[in-house]
């Protein structure tokens, strides 16, 4: 048996260092309670751009641009040591951490943002980087399209972990790619919530015969900074729950094991037994004995995509 922890806390909105500090403190708290896996939600560092669902893309251009600039300034550069405190906490407490970040690309234009989910193991640091394949609706005003280079399942001390972000979980072929890699702990960080969403996660647990860990965004009007542009217009009710969270753990077969935690900050703990995954697939294994590769096959291009490839020999500087 292993204990997992889902952190349902509002991140420090548009504050990279504050969000990282909160993550480090939450990892220590979860580890003290015996967790071997600590799960954070989508875009935890440094917050989900919730304003996209209230601003008009064209008419509110200046506000969108100002908020994008702040998000860009507080995004994570994976080529830097931005995440060093989180990696150090994972090592110190010997836990695996999965966490959503706003990632600033450091290889091409150095200006594009991605909705990225990372896996950190205690001994190896960041072992997987998954960029959301298809930003949803107005999210395309902020995030670029990811690729399948991180659409993978990782062996960790807590089990075989794979993740799809928010509405990626509605993409059957993306789910199948994880099932085919033997996912045991299927992580679903999300801005979605409510009974319909929980029902979707239960279906995934039944379909994939794996544990499904839904980690929801928690956001209240009081979490919006005072200097947020148009704050009084966009978030008039100071008591509003912009997103209620609804974090949950679902066992193979669809039974809820823990949660949902709704309109409440906290950490959900749940004991899991990954051996139950293989047993649950005895009757239904959609990527194994229940598949029909003579009829259906899935091809995944997991090459990292780039807008440029240099093919010539780089000239050496003359001394």
Plain-language structure description:
This protein is α/β, with parallel strands linked by helices and 319 residues long. It has a single domain (2-280), classed as 4-Layer Sandwich (Nitrilase/N-carbamoyl-D-aminoacid amidohydrolase), CATH 3.60.110. It contains seven helices and 13 strands. It has helices spanning 16-32, 61-73, 84-93, 172-179, 195-208, 231-234, 275-280, and strands spanning 2-8, 37-39, 96-104, 113-121, 125-131, 154-156, 159-163, 185-190, 211-216, 218-220, 241-250, 256-262, 266-272. Strands 6, 7, 8, 9, 10, 11 and 12 form a seven-stranded mixed β-sheet that branches. It has a six-stranded mixed β-sheet with strand order 5-4-3-2-1-13. The longest helix is centred in the first third of the chain and has 17 residues, at 16-32. The chain is globular and about 55 Å long. The mean pLDDT is 94.
Count of the separate structural domains: 1
CATH class: Alpha Beta
- The chain-level structural class is alpha/beta
| Radius of gyration using CA atoms only | 20 Å
Query: What is the third-level CATH name, the topology?
Result: Nitrilase/N-carbamoyl-D-aminoacid amidohydrolase
Mean pLDDT: 94
Helicity level, as a percent range? 10-25%
CATH architecture annotation: 4-Layer Sandwich
- Rounded to the nearest angstrom, the distance between the terminal CA atoms is 62 Å
Q: Strand fraction band?
A: 25-35%
Count of helices? 7
Q: What is the H/E string?
A: EHEHHEEEEEHEHEEHEEEH
Low-pLDDT residue intervals, each spanning 5 or more residues? none
Task: Give the number of DSSP strands.
Answer: 13
Shape descriptor reads globular
Fourth-tier CATH superfamily name? Carbon-nitrogen hydrolase
How does the major sheet shape up? 7 strands, mixed
